[in-house]
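Deliverable D4.2, example record:
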Amino acid sequence: MRLRTGVLTISVCLALAACGGEAGESGAEQLALDIRGEYLEMAGCTAALEMTADYGQRVYTYGIDLSWQREGETVLTVTAPENVAGVTARILEGETALEYDGMRVETGPLDDSGMSPVDAVPVLLDYAEGGFIAACGMETLEEQEVLRVDCREPEAAAGTGRECSLWFDPSTHALLRGELSQDGFTVIQCVFTEFQMQ
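Output generated by the structure prediction step:
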């Protein structure tokens, strides 16, 4: 518990330093910090999502059911397209296993760090819990006011290295959307529905 409190304190301090400034942004900053605290404390989550993985010359879109447990297994089950529905990826303590019946799902690396589509949702959740917040604010997404949080390395300029953008429902704090970019190019986009924290 002491380690988790320390991580939360450091995350809050970094987030305040990154977002600070404008008086009009203080509501968004506080909301971002509140959401971060909730994500640090959640035991797990479930969701349905549509994931688009862009390899440059190839783009794949999958429907996925997610079950993530902090102290257990992450399970990603493909729901679409139909020809690969039922393919399941299980991630436990850094080990990943694909379960399928004669079908191959593209899971090769999307960037130089070796991240693949299977890794994307846990990476998005890591950013939600502790990524350095470079910017945050309210914006309209599909006619709904949402909180956008942009994360990257503290010393990195926008458009360089890996960056993450997250969109949250301001009332339920559910993750609505997440994007991972490498050197300004979006390699993963996830649109979440039915996101439930546990």
